[in-house]
Amino acid sequence: MTALDAPVPDGADLSALIARVAASRDRTAYAALFKYFAPRVKAYLRRAGMEGAEAEEATQDVMLIVWRKADRFDPARAGATTWVFAIARNVRIDHLRRRNSGAASTMPELDTEEHAPSAETLMLADEREERIRMALDGLTDEQREIVRLSFFSETPHAAISSALALPLGTVKSRIRLAMVKLRAAIGNDS
User: Fold this and answer.
1) What are the residues whose beta carbons fall under 8 Å from the beta carbon of 67, sequence distance 6 or more?
2) Secondary-structure class of domain 126-190 per CATH
């Protein structure tokens, strides 16, 4: 099975992995979480303006917090992705504060529990995540596969074309059509 064939875990799978880390410090579950979240967190941090080395360091900090604080994850309050990206947001803010203050060693570590997003924010994020999941279910199998590869696995279009033995133009057309359908299904949130 190649990376392109690996199934994208859903929210329940990710929550179960976090629960395994919390309950028994399951290294296999943590490795799966790391493999799934680390590249996504790093991409988020890079898009938020962090440079390569700083984004890598912040990603390591995020994943360490996931390991250390897995027992604080409450799937009733937020989805796994929402929880991890709330941690990433807080770590990013912490890194910015340290960089701007010039005193990294004197800055207290940001406690993600104290600065967690509000219940309303988490609820809205979970509702949006569910709408997106339902919208994805409305796509054709071909479109859903290409969206999964392009957006969730961050596979370049040329690699998708090779992996699925499709012309590059077909891959791009399916992505474009899928995005139109997703925007229509999700509404004004997109």
Assistant:
1) 21, 30
2) mainly alpha
